[in-house]
Write a structure and sequence with these properties.
- The protein is mainly α and 70 residues long.
- The protein is built from four helices and no strands.
- The radius of gyration is 12 Å and the shape is globular.
- The protein has one domain.
- The protein is 70% helix and 0% strand.
């Protein structure tokens, strides 16, 4: 159920956004997201794959389809 919500949210936002970002661009954005997250919550690591994916996608909508590409 939660994964379906992830996909539905991303379908509407990323069809236009993802076309303008290369895989390398998305990795750079992901690195910035990790840095900001580490600064806000030092020592905390998200271990749930679904929650991890939600955390990344909520941080930046450009990353919605990144996990599908990997």
């Amino acid at each position: 159920m939660l994964e379906a919500n992830i996909d539905n949210d991303c379908n509407t936002q990323t069809s236009l956004l993802n076309n303008s970002f290369t895989f390398a661009d998305q990795i750079q954005i992901l690195t910035k997201v990790f840095y900001k997250y580490q600064y806000k919550k030092p020592g905390f690591i998200e271990l749930s794959p679904v929650c991890f994916q939600l955390m990344i996608k909520n941080a930046d909508s450009c990353l919605c389809r990144l996990f599908d590409q990997m």
